[in-house]
Amino acid sequence: MNVRVGKGVIVGVSVGLTGLLFSLTFVLNLWSLDNRQVVKAAARADSQPQPGSAAIQPLTGPWVVAVQPGHWEVAALPDELYRLRTSTGAQYGSVREVDINRSVAAALVPMIRARGWVPLLVPATVPPDIRADAFIALHADWGDQSDRRGWKLTPPWRASGASRKLAAAIAASFSAEPNLVHDVDGVSVNMRGYYAFNNRRFTHAASPYTPDVIIEMGFITNPADRKLLTTSPEFYAAIIMRGLEHYFASRTRTETNDLQPLELPWVAAGSSGAVVRQGPSADSPVRWRLDPGTAMMPVDESGNWYEVFVRHQFATGWISMDETVPAENPRWPMPGESRSLPQGLPAADR
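The structure corresponding to this sequence follows.
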């Protein structure tokens, strides 16, 4: 069954004691929210510059924070994302990732509102080109081994300076917690290519000028992480809130230059091939050697180095710009896509 909380906010009540507890927590935490501040379908298209425009129009009023509980209402996704309609998230016994994500969101939204900011509660279907001062996608992870634990987060591919600063502020807040573990090197290609931030590919994605971060708060397959995730949503919400406060304290709305995503040209390995390394240094260990002409998608840069996505490895590494030549976009599938699908349809969400 469904419980309707105010206009347009629908919360599904799960079967089972754990699911019921999560859903009731979600309902109670949202019950008192002003519906004008819990927005499921309000894009700020009026503040969205047209492609090629010279300036990014800043938002006005209080800080706006979009919060997306991962996998919430995936069944309602539009046709361009139809493959994700069955992506209901991880599950361990009766513990469901989506319930954890919703519980943390339900704790975070009132904190945002109490601070005088505007919370936007965003379902799986992202309003096209939604503008916000921060977009937080909440997720929990699954591991093949029960001893793997910890949080991780990342901004998207070719992140703007603002997205990087937002990620750094929230990461610092997580790192300050002595009872939490950082899943170092755990960020995946699919996290960085998360559909909700992939405005280049999908209509139902945030504006490229919205700073965004996806957070994997912990592993539901790890006993220590699972206990915290299922019993302490306010704990995680408070960590994120402290990161947001630190981020906003260092910003003003007129700083729009760092809202522009990084734009990098496609490249290919030069006539002698190329060496892909773990880091942006000639002393960094070699990951792969590429044949001449191998196309690569740069996703970041540091000095004279590109971080590139290498399709046949489905991973990234660093390559000297001196070993590359310009290349045309080969239009092969981006991370999470398949040529067997119509253009723009993902095979996985993260």
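The CA atoms of residues 40 and 55 lie 27 Å apart.
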